């Protein structure tokens, strides 16, 4: 169906689109949906094995080769909080952990009796906060909760208590954490109080030095809670904007948004809601973002490469997530740097392992 749509958009036949999809998979393991959304099936796009784009399969393979398998602090959001707090890395404030096996607040006090729950709601959580699955990915099932969000019958606190108890029954445990405030300059750009984050890709060299290989800003468009590029529930693209910053200055370059039909993308000069210009916009706190990511990269060793989600707040940058198996929605020179660094390290590690095997005979 989508091949037919692409054929109509590009003015070619369906077999031409299918053949190009096959060739892109053979060249660099791009699945059809990836090729469609990235505009790779356009007849004018040259097919190459290594270049401006990298497939998820190829990227995940390189990450697996260079990263330690001991990456629980990346995959488990509760451990992420604990690990970051242990090393003094800023994260959203944790309020509670909810589980069918038992609930507790951030200090370790149980949440079981009616009195404990009522006290927790009255004294420990703000009017709005975030609930997210402990092992969730890609923004799946994130909820905005709080007495300020309550609607319908009953007192707001009573309704919130019902919602929290309903979360207790979920298969995946839930964590309740602070809803961060967005930096005023980002809010002026997007017209939204929701967080628009920066995805920053770090790397630890073989000499033990942290480097930033690439980054892109994800700008929210419309009334959304998250800045995800695609909706994990529907699979459709959200219309949120992506823009690459200059790595040294944090000044945004040209921006783009993936088309909702999943066929290619379009360049975006200004934010569709506020009309604010995107190219040339300087991200706030950029030197602090770079310093925070480099410090965090060292603390998370032996995980060698991470895609960090960083919130830009009035109080500075805050780490939201660490993704050791990250995706990359961009293209161009940053992708080439990531591919080159990880490929060279994969070969170095393979050569080192071979030498050890030979020496151990």
Features:
alpha+beta, single chain, 5-stranded antiparallel sheet, D-amino Acid Aminotransferase, Chain A, domain 1
What can you tell me about this protein's structure?
This protein is α+β, with helices and mostly antiparallel strands. It has 3 domains: 2-49, no CATH class; 63-89 and 182-344, 2-Layer Sandwich (D-amino Acid Aminotransferase, Chain A, domain 1); 94-178, no CATH class. Helices cover 35% and strands 19% of the residues. The strands form 2 sheets. It has a 7-stranded antiparallel sheet with strand order 10-9-8-7-6-11-12, sandwiched between helices. Strand 1 (94-98) and strand 2 form a beta hairpin. Helix 4 packs across helix 11. The model has no long low-confidence stretch (mean pLDDT 90).
Structural class: alpha+beta
What low-confidence regions span 5 or more consecutive residues with pLDDT below 50?
none
Order of helices and strands: HHHHHHEEHEEHEHEEEEEHEEH
CATH topology tier name of the largest domain = D-amino Acid Aminotransferase, Chain A, domain 1
Under CATH, the homologous superfamily of the largest domain reads ATP-grasp fold, B domain
The percent of residues in helical segments reads: 25-40%
